[in-house]
């Protein structure tokens, strides 16, 4: 009995040790994602993976919630006419004359417990400084128009401020896209605005705790490899479950599954992780061990077309390229129909989607006819040439190591070859492709990637001519193809300030018609993000729009 009792005690002891070890292991969460941010500054360069990380370490004034409606993160309440926090006024021109156009003044109050990671409070002065950075023409921020449309920000006190905007938009009650920077740390870096993107502490001193006001702060950054986060001691909200979060970059999507199964990572970011085909295969083999969620959302894969390219400047060539590819076959064969064909940039889940906008069916004969009309009618070695002997040869780029994108590239390349268009592949790591090549319009012909948006997102930064990045504007804006269309500009200006929902719907319909008629990009398919969750990880709730699950990181828990 003594021996039996000793064995029992030993087993119980080992059980306690194992349980303690598992509990200790759960104090750290290791997340894998496929890209590494080109910068950690919230204003510079638009990358989903950057947003994913920053949502754990900082908070916005307002975002969209799981119900697709605006909500406060750092503010106490939205600015509505009903609450008295929003007020219309008529704009006056330089001569003192009324213009008949309306602006709006909105009052916001920052949460009294909002604090930077060094203990300094988040204040109205931070908001005013951030506005100065965002609207400066030499800073080169991604969402320049968000800041430029604001004519004044006046501090009422340390936590409250009034924003005067030259446009009364249907999104007047929010401050979506307005990123707050810590003035007490970032102001010296802004002394020379043109050099700000190179001097910002988010890149030169990214582990400075004062840069962050969320549940976590960044404690280690190894470019291209990983980012380590620790609890922010000055966070006054709900205490997050994990002491530490490690975000690893594994650019080759084929390696993600192996790392998950080996235990090297606990979770693969649903927003930037396994491709749909991988997830479908993974579910067949290991589905019983994981909770797998397929979340369709406001995200579409597309090919940007460099409209400064003489061949692609001809809309007939652009239409031919789209007619030449069988997107239905791509959707069915590669994604089992879970990622349907995109005919436009507005997702069918969004209430403004125009189902009757022009569409381009798979029609190789029509593609060939359009190329003939455009002057590419001479075939030599199966490749089209014009009358001067110029070869119709284009280059396509995407994120290197992304298995599904590289596969789609090959499929597109094959379809285009069948109609006489030569396409060469040249891919780059995501941080280079997005941080330099696309942002500065260095791609020669085509760039394939995805846009993720919020509900009823006005495409000013992607389709308005004033948002074409250039050296003159500090490479701000995201109209990377260089699309210029006066009617589109007018419609974007009009839809922003139209408060009547039905009238706005008519404007949205025409915006989608022009997009489909002019094809500044080639829409491919609407993406579904796949969340492969370990059984013990709870609280991860996909939104289906641009605000990532990590905005609610403090709700994640071990069960």
Structure description:
Helices cover 31% and strands 21% of the residues. With 559 residues, the chain is an alpha+beta fold. It has a domain at 299-528: Roll (Dipeptide-binding Protein, domain 3). Strands 8-9-10-1-11 form a 5-stranded mixed sheet, covered by helices on one side. It has a 5-stranded mixed sheet with strand order 16-15-17-12-18. The protein has a 4-stranded antiparallel sheet with strand order 4-5-7-6. Helix 10 runs antiparallel to helix 12 (364-373). The chain is globular and about 70 Å long.
Task: Provide tags for this entry.
5-stranded mixed sheet; disordered N terminus; Dipeptide-binding Protein, domain 3; globular; 17 helices; alpha+beta; 20 strands; 559 residues; single chain
How are the SSEs ordered, and which strands pair?
Elements: H1 2-25, E1 28-33, H2 48-57, E2 62-64, E3 70-72, E4 86-92, E5 98-109, H3 124-135, H4 144-148, E6 150-155, E7 160-165, H5 183-186, H6 196-199, H7 201-204, E8 216-222, E9 226-231, E10 244-249, H8 253-262, E11 267-268, H9 276-286, E12 290-305, H10 315-323, H11 327-335, H12 364-373, E13 378-380, E14 383-385, E15 393-397, H13 403-418, E16 422-425, H14 430-438, E17 446-452, H15 460-463, H16 486-497, H17 501-518, E18 521-534, E19 537-538, E20 557-558
Parallel strand pairs: 1-10, 1-11, 15-16, 15-17
Antiparallel strand pairs: 2-3, 4-5, 5-7, 6-7, 8-9, 9-10, 12-17, 12-18, 13-14, 19-20
Helix pairs in contact: 10-12, 16-17
């Amino acid at each position: 009995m003594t021996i039996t009792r000793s064995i029992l005690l030993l087993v119980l002891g080992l059980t306690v040790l194992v349980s303690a070890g598992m509990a200790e292991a759960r104090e750290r969460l290791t997340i894998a994602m496929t890209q590494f941010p080109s910068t950690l500054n919230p204003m510079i360069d638009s990358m989903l993976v950057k947003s994913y990380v920053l949502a754990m370490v900082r908070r916005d004034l307002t975002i969209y919630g799981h119900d697709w409606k605006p909500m406060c993160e750092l503010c106490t309440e939205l600015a509505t006419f009903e609450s008295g926090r929003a007020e219309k006024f008529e704009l006056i021109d330089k001569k003192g004359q009324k213009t008949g156009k309306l602006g709006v003044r909105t009052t916001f109050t920052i949460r009294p417990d909002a604090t930077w990671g060094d203990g300094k409070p988040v204040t109205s002065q931070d908001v005013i400084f951030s506005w100065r950075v965002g609207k400066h023409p030499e800073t080169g921020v991604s969402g320049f128009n968000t800041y430029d449309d604001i004519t004044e920000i006046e501090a009422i006190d340390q936590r409250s401020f009034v924003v005067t905007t030259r446009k009364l938009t249907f999104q007047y009650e929010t401050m979506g896209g307005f990123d707050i920077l810590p003035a007490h740390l970032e102001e010296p870096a802004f002394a020379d605005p043109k050099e700000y993107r190179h001097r910002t502490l988010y890149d030169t001193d990214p582990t400075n705790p004062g840069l962050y006001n969320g549940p976590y702060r960044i404690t280690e950054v190894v470019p291209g490899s990983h980012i380590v986060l620790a609890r922010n001691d000055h966070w006054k909200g709900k205490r997050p479950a994990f002491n530490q979060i490690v975000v690893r970059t594994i650019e080759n999507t084929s390696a993600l599954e192996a790392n998950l199964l080996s235990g090297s990572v606990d979770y693969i970011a649903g927003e930037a992780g396994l491709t749909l085909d991988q997830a479908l295969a993974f579910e067949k083999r290991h589905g019983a061990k994981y909770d797998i969620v397929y979340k369709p959302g406001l995200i579409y894969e597309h090919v940007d077309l460099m409209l400064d390219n003489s061949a692609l400047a001809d809309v007939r060539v652009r239409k031919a390229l789209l007619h030449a590819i069988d997107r239905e076959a791509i959707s069915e064969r590669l994604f089992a129909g879970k990622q349907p064909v995109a005919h436009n940039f507005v997702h069918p889940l969004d209430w403004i989607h125009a189902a009757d906008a022009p569409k381009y069916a798979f029609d190789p004969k029509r593609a060939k006819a359009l190329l003939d009309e455009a002057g590419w009618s001479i075939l030599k070695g199966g490749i089209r040439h014009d009358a001067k002997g110029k070869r119709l040869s284009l280059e396509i780029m995407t994120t290197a190591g992304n298995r599904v994108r590289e596969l789609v590239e090959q499929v597109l390349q094959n379809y285009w070859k069948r109609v006489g268009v030569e396409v060469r592949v040249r891919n780059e790591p995501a941080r280079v492709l997005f941080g330099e090549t696309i942002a500065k319009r260095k791609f020669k012909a085509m760039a394939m990637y995805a846009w993720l948006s919020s509900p009823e997102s006005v495409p000013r930064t992607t389709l308005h001519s004033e948002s074409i990045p250039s050296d003159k504007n500090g490479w701000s804006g995201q109209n990377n193809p260089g699309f210029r269309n006066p009617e589109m500009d007018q419609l974007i200006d009009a839809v922003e300030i139209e408060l009547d929902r039905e009238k706005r719907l008519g404007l949205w319909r025409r915006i989608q018609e022009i997009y489909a008629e002019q094809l500044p990009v080639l829409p491919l398919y609407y993406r579904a993000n796949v969340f492969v969750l370990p059984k013990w990880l709870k609280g991860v709730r996909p939104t289906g729009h641009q605000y990532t699950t990590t905005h609610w990181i403090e709700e994640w828990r071990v069960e």
